[in-house]
Amino acid sequence: MSWFNANAVAMPAPGTYGNMGIGTLRGPGFWDWSQTVSRRFQVAEGQQVEFRAEAFNVTNSVRLGNPIVSLSGGQFGKITTSNGGPRIMQFALKYFF
To answer: I want to staple 88 with a disulfide (CB 3.0 to 4.6 A). Which of 33, 51, 56, 76 is the partner?
Structure first.
């Protein structure tokens, strides 16, 4: 997947700087929605039970990595990695005494 047109960028002459400013090209944005819900219940005096549910990457969205910035190798401007993983849900039950 090409994130931008790699033919629009060229290597400057040796010993010179290019005319592209810092931050001109940006990778895909990253956002994350992780959620935790917990509740404690009083069982007896000095004893509690806690139920906890956690979800990571709730929307199960793809999180693309940054494009390759090395001009060698023919992969310049392509995204070959991803950040994060699939939706993960976990549940826990604790007993406090």
So the answer is: 56
d(CA 95, CA 76): 54
Token pair, residue 96, equals 């406090």
pTM of the entire structure? Answer: 0.61
Bridge partners of 78, per DSSP, are 2
Q: Are strands 47-56 and 35-44 parallel, antiparallel or unpaired?
A: antiparallel
CA distances from 65 to 7, 39, 41, 54, 85 (A): 21, 36, 42, 25, 12
* Whole-number Å distance between alpha carbons of 76 and 58: 32
pLDDT at 62: 86
